[in-house]
Amino acid sequence: MNDQSGAEKNRNQTISELKQLLNNRLETAGQVLAEHAGDVSHHPPQKPNAVAFPESNEEVAKIVQICANYCTPIIPYGIGSAVEGGVVAIHGGICVDTKSMNHILDVSPVNQDAIVQAGVTRMQLNDHLSGNYPGLFFPLDPGADASLGGMSATNASGSAAVKYGMMRDNVLGLTVVTADGNIIRTGGRAKKSSSGYDLTNLFVGSEGTLGIITEITVKLTHLPQSVTAAICPFPDISSAINSTIEMKSAGIPLARMELLDEVQMGAVNRYSKLSYQESPTLFLEFHGTEFDLTEQTEKVGTIAKKHGALDFQWASEQADRDKLWQARYDAYYASLNLKVNGAGFVTDVCVPISQLAECILWTKDLLKETEIPCPLFGHVGDGNYHVVFVIDPENPSELEEVKNFSKQIVDHALKVGGTCSGEHGIGIGKLDALEKEHGQAIHTMRAIKRALDPNNIMNPGKVLEV
């Protein structure tokens, strides 16, 4: 028999030392590895060599130090709800699952912020605030009950971004374990700073390629006095988008503004047993005082009617609002239901609002060329939209077809001054698109990666090819 390769020896030694450190909180069993092999995307899962479950910053630092000694790859893991393969262990290594680091460390009503460990989920934080600090909440809603560490790593946003921004807009500071095993703290509770390089925003959105985020200081906001939701179907996609643009141009402060096309509405009707009109539909939500909402809803109703709205359904009670929004929350899984054993190939782009109508109409025209189910939906209030191609994961020709469509959609978004990803990140799915978007700046990104992670052990192969 051949001797073990040097890399295999290093992995085995890494696992041996991690077992001494973590005991039964290091898993090498097949089922646990399989559960950490991928996200919810079409990217083929690949198992790590082991999964570590640290409980403190210090344990994460020791894990990283051991891995660094043997140049063993490290893959940070939240709950695995991303869609670009960011947690796939394409080079093997140690998956660091932060779910046991799920403590809310401090909440300051005066400062309107909270310090949490990376494994805390957004719903866990909001439940805690509701029970202990009524009147405060964390507003970002990416759909899944994602961990705040994962949301920070991918710069997540979601349906409320039109009012509350992205994760980058809501993170004041971080605790990060860097590739050499040091624990650093960036930012703080001050609402602004002119002090040094902005390391907080460097790590937010870096997808675990520069370090492991272990704690986050997030902004909180006051719950609105009143909330009203509405859904509004239109006869065609152009009318819906033009209505969206006029609402934005009128300065109406919408909290959520979502568009589901006719394919997506049909999918959610069947999946969720609803009976909405199967036409392009806007989902809207307004936050403010009762006076604010009366004024806003009147303006929105007038604009929607001007653009041929087929109906307008309003709801102010929580249960009624939830029922109206069910179609939007079920959108992704309703899409997958369009094909037996279907897998989602998701592409998302974000374009300037001035180009939104042209880009979505262009995309809808492009999608006529395929028979693969491909509903379109998005956070159109900030120019971000998604196409979910529902493919047979065992059919290589379908995968190649939708890759080509995705490339065309991205290229068109870049052509009009947009970005290749509004919120899903790069992972392993959009490496080429990132280079195309950023041009020469990609060399600066690589220089930062090499400086902070010279041995390329932090989630290697993601975001940047080094």
Task: Walk me through what this model shows.
The protein has helices at residues 6-22, 30-35, 57-69, 122-132, 148-154, 161-164, 167-170, 199-203, 237-249, 262-272, 290-306, 318-329, 331-336, 356-367, 396-415, 431-438, 441-452, and strands at 26-27, 50-52, 74-77, 94-97, 104-108, 113-117, 136-137, 171-178, 183-187, 211-219, 221-222, 226-233, 254-260, 281-288, 313-315, 343-350, 376-379, 384-391. The protein is of the alpha+beta class and 466 residues long. The protein has 4 domains: 6-97, Uridine Diphospho-n-acetylenolpyruvylglucosamine Reductase, domain 2, CATH 3.30.43; 104-222, 2-Layer Sandwich (Uridine Diphospho-n-acetylenolpyruvylglucosamine Reductase, domain 3); 226-333, 2-Layer Sandwich (Alpha-Beta Plaits), CATH 3.30.70; 338-423, Alpha-Beta Plaits, CATH 3.30.70.2740. The strands form 4 sheets. It has a 7-stranded antiparallel β-sheet, with helices on both faces. Strands 5-6-10-8-9 form a 5-stranded antiparallel β-sheet. A 4-stranded mixed β-sheet has the order 1-2-4-3. It is globular. The model has no long low-confidence stretch (mean pLDDT 95).
